[in-house]
Amino acid sequence: MASTVWGLSMPAIALALLIIVAGGVVRGFGGFGGSMVWVAGLVVLLPPTAVIPTVFILEVVSSAAMLPQVWRQVHWQSLRWLFAGTLIGMPVGMWLLTQLSGDLVRILLGLSIVAAAVAMAVVPDRASLPGPGSTTATGVVSGLLNGGFALGGPPVILMYFSASSHVVAGRASLVVFFLGIDAFGVAGSAAGGLLTTPVLAQTALFIPLCLAGAAAGKWMFARTTADRVRQRVLWLLGVLGIAVLVQVALR
């Protein structure tokens, strides 16, 4: 397996670029999900240690680009507790990334996504967001997943999008949440020696495509109702999780 995109064949590079655009569209639509598409797609072509640092940077760039449009819609009270929990869980997740095999990371990744989709399907639509304790616990789980797999989204997505009345505020809050935790992830990757020159170069190649996809996703969100957003989030989580598990089974 090539260590970065620069070692891939031309068809594989084209596939990687398509994955980046697709993830950008998903990110712009829901305020989340780009990392799921990028990690699930790119780990088929590249090792997790090359994919995850790149995804951290792409998430930071995507969030920064969306921030001016969503700032006034953010639910700041829930974000405070989420960040507190994430700071506990994320260092542990980063340590696990260096200890676990690539295939085990992929299996855990797929299971976590499927679990979030199943939970969203069975949890009834809530009238309000959870309290400080549950929100902090969600942050801890998100930190573990984000540090280990660059995939802290599923628990937080489940929390926000299980309440259809909070879809707009949830989307805005997710943008700020990912900006914070992924900036921390970039710093951790740098400290761990994962931000090598080839990884930074592949990230620079991906950024314009990521932003173009995000712009298309924002255009789609503006034309979609809250109920349909929740439904599409559910399907997206399920498909991505199953795709990752199938990839591992076929290896």
How would you sum up this structure, described in words?
The chain crosses the membrane at residues 6-26, 38-58, 78-97, 104-123, 143-162, 174-194, 200-221, 233-250. This protein has 251 residues and is mostly helical. It has one domain (5-250). It is built from ten helices and no strands. It has helices at residues 10-30, 34-42, 48-70, 76-99, 102-122, 132-149, 153-161, 167-191, 197-221, 226-250. The model has no long low-confidence stretch (mean pLDDT 80).
Provide a short characterization of the protein structure:
The protein is mostly helical and 251 residues long. The protein has helices at 10-30, 34-42, 48-70, 76-99, 102-122, 132-149, 153-161, 167-191, 197-221, 226-250. Helix 1 (10-30) crosses helix 9 and helix 2 packs antiparallel against helix 3.
